[in-house]
Write a structure and sequence with these properties.
The protein is of the alpha+beta class and 290 residues long. Helices cover 47% and strands 12% of the residues. Pfam families: Thioredoxin_4.
Length: 290
Amino acid sequence: MTERNPKPSKADRTAAAREQARAMREAQKKKEQRNKLLVRWGVVAAVVAIIVVVALIVINSMRGGNGAEAQTGQSPANANEFGGITLTSTTALEPSEPFAVDVATLPAEPTEANDEAPIPPGIAPAAEGEPVPIVVYVDVNCVHCAEFEETYNGQIASWLDAGEVTFEYRTVAFLDRSSPTNYSSRGANAAACVADTNPESYWDFMTSIFANYDNGEIKNAELASMAESVGAGNASDCIQNDGFRAFVNYADRLARVDYVSGTPTVYVNGAETNANDFTTTVQAAIDANK
């Protein structure tokens, strides 16, 4: 005869019920902890998302919004078709009327270097008795350009005001590729704005922007303040609104098309010159051209 399982005692049933209740409480506690953790991580994720969005807005604002992509527009007054702005003294620019620019009409950027590339257009020796032309490709975010300015600024100013040279800046944006704020383009735009509204202040503005190099990349509002400090307060709106970013992109593309690959690249009297030999080369050209 088969034995039946003995019926649990009351004590056993009570113990089992307590264990089941304990297990249920433990499961509920773990569930609540998981929910709290999920909520906590959800809040963290939301905060991170907000920070990312704000950062993107700030960076986009500092980069100049859609200015970086500007392809068509006007040049500033006093600029030339080669993307340059030429000083005839420290308070005067070679005058010219604004012209339309369209980056899409320019040749594509070369994909290979050319060690035998010709001299870029618009660079030629002076006629006898005329001021010696100096053309320099610069990037406002370039340490070697800042060093060039620090070393030679005073001498260049002396030559300019003596009528012995002209000095043309062709300001490019090569270093935007390593800048989170497109400072090269924004600085070049600011310089173009000053050339357009206050040409008499252009030399002082270029001097100031390179003297500021050690302070790092600055915002458009600070560039506008810098312009105002040298007497170019009229340029503020243009600087803040990226008024000549299409011209900056145009000048930058022209330099690349002409195989200019670094800054500063210096031309004196129609020939490329090592920056270390700048003073002697210019003075020799001045003496020979009298």
